[in-house]
Description:
Helices cover 33% and strands 22% of the residues.
Amino acid sequence: xxxxxxxxxxxxxxxxxxxxxxxxxxxxxxxxxxxxxxxxxxxxxxxxxxxxxxxxxxxxxxxxxxxxxxxxxxxxxxxxxxxxxxxxxxxxxxxxxxxxxxxxxxxxxxxxxxxxxxxxxxxxxxxxxxxxxxxxxxxxxxxxxxxxxxxxxxxxxxxxxxxxxxxxxxxxxxxxxxxxxxxxxxxxxxxxxxxxxxxxxxxxxxxxxxxxxxxxxxxxxxxxxxxxxxxxxxxxxxxxxxxxxxxxxxxxxxxxxxxxxxxxxxxxxxxxxxxxxxxxxxxxxxxxxxxxxxxxxxxxxxxxxxxxxxxxxxxxxxxxxxxxxxxxxxxxxxxxxxxxxxxxxxxxxxxxxxxxxxxxxxxxxxxxxxxxxxxxxxxxxxxxxxxxxxxxxxxxxxxxxxxxxxxxxx
Length: 410
């Protein structure tokens, strides 16, 4: 949570932090400012002082709405520094930041965060370090202080994420109604004009629904069928007609335009009917999903539940990533990831990396799946869950698990 940031600064021996960029591209800056739209903004927080937010004059009211003490870049006019540096931008910017740091008594170890071109960031910070010998430029390796703070959501954040989950499930329900409203002719879903209904048609409907619910598609949602469903992040081919009796993976992960928070859910289903052998595969995934959801709890590391997932699938005879990290068939990914202002953030339900225990305030996806593209199928079931202040599991994806969507014949 945001309240943890000063403590995390002390733990890393940081005397100040600087976060620079646009809130649309830096989720850390969006986190600090509450998602208010800002471009070329800087959040400066000396450990022993109050945070200050620098913004351009065009966005001064946006900046002030954050409740953070606001200054304008115009208070340190770049034109003046350009004149002093004979029109050279880099020395002008260094001089501007030098005066800002002096005004706020910034010295010692300073952590730098945000988004910028990597080459320019290196050049700028190198020049800044040379120009300000009383500052030590610090760059963290992941997870940085914001990654750790953001892992734990407070009650307000959980409420916003619950609202995104509710809107997302409403869209999924409408998509299912849209599909069941079409008839099939010779195993193919048809439009009212007598043409095959395609994945592109469905995605167009989904985008309209997203707009109606004030959600946005930052990355193309997944709606993949048959063989394509066997490759986890295959988004689906727009020109592919929808067929009866094939696995369809619908993975939707929209962001709320107001709060900036994501939701993530997946349902795998069949139109019309499920062939017996694929119905059994679907049930195997659902069984693993149910057992993991029953077992997952605070106080245990996320990797424990990844291992449980692998063990359950292997007991059923499926290959898994735990036994062979190079496999491309079977269970081939981690169980889940944190969800928040980024669709993928900490903590992770994986045996790789940091194994911190799950805590109250954590929000993660749970998404076991099986993938066999050469056999023409893939199945994944996913909910986003949270742990409240008491550590109780709250399912933010309140939606049924339907194997078959009924379809009438033309």
